[in-house]
Write a structure and sequence with these properties.
The chain is of the alpha+beta class. The chain has five helices and ten strands. Strands 1, 2, 3, 4, 5, 6, 7, 8, 9 and 10 form a ten-stranded mixed β-sheet that branches. Helix 3 (about 135-145) packs across helix 4. The longest helix is centred in the last third of the chain and has 13 residues, at about 195-205. It is globular, with a radius of gyration of 19 Å.
Length: about 240
């Protein structure tokens, strides 16, 4: 058996997240079922680089699986794409060392959260419509307080199975580029709901409800109630996974 990395993208609108769960359709389940069909119904299991929640999308996602050696990778990828729904795309497949792990070998993860401030029917599934005036200068000032190695309990979903809530954020800023507005954040790891809670809190800075320096106080509290409400899932994309 040979281990392969798959680089994929998916629209999470109609999925209940990445991870397999009872009675709900997930991205992982659809890919595993499709690979199993290709291999004459021999069960194929895959391991993803992380979880995404219900309705969250992935611009760049990496998974690994062990398969019999693929003679023609391009032909295999073409066949797999034909069998998968339009909401999942296989961009590349390549062999890796047998111990290489899609989740544990990832060095940095980057997320983007998209908003739009003018009503646009073509963005409604992949960006959050927020017409209120925002102070992006203050929002970027606040984002600086997220940098470094800190405890992000205040921005995490409660009662998760995470062994630690310490994350190291290496970049966090709001960007306006050719009509698109998004928040980009990179870290070595992320907690459940962390990005959506972070964006919601920074939005409140932009609305003048809290001050930029309050971000540090919110993190120090280690209390989810100290931060703001999470923003909707449909504006969030797992944007890039970086490996050694």
């Amino acid at each position: 058996m040979q281990r392969y990395f798959f680089e994929i993208a998916y629209d999470g609108t109609n999925f209940f997240g990445w991870q397999i769960q009872p009675n709900n359709i997930s991205v992982q389940q659809v890919i595993e079922d499709t690979l199993t069909k290709i291999h004459s119904n021999s069960p194929i299991k895959i391991v993803g680089c992380g979880r995404t929640d219900t309705g969250v999308h992935a611009h760049h996602y990496v998974l690994h699986t062990d398969l019999p050696e693929i003679n023609d990778i391009d032909a295999f990828a073409f066949k797999l794409n034909r069998m998968l729904p339009e909401s999942i795309a296989i961009h590349s497949i390549y062999p890796v060392h047998s111990e290489t792990h899609a989740r544990f070998y990832a060095m940095r993860r980057t997320y983007r959260y998209f908003i739009h401030q003018k009503k646009d029917p073509f963005k409604q599934k992949h960006s959050w419509y927020l017409p209120q005036k925002l102070d992006f200068e203050k929002m970027n000032e606040a984002a600086k307080h997220l940098l470094g190695k800190q405890d992000f309990t205040s921005l995490s979903k409660l009662h998760t199975d995470a062994k630690t809530n310490i994350c190291e954020v290496t970049a966090a800023h709001w960007i306006s580029d050719r009509g698109e507005i998004y928040f980009e954040i990179s870290a070595n790891r992320f907690l459940r709901n962390m990005v959506r809670a972070t964006v919601g809190t920074l939005i409140d800075v932009g609305l003048g409800k809290i001050e930029p320096q309050d971000i540090s106080k919110i993190l120090e509290a280690k209390d989810r109630q100290a931060a703001s409400t999470s923003v909707p899932a449909h504006g969030l994309f797992l944007w890039k996974i970086l490996y050694p």
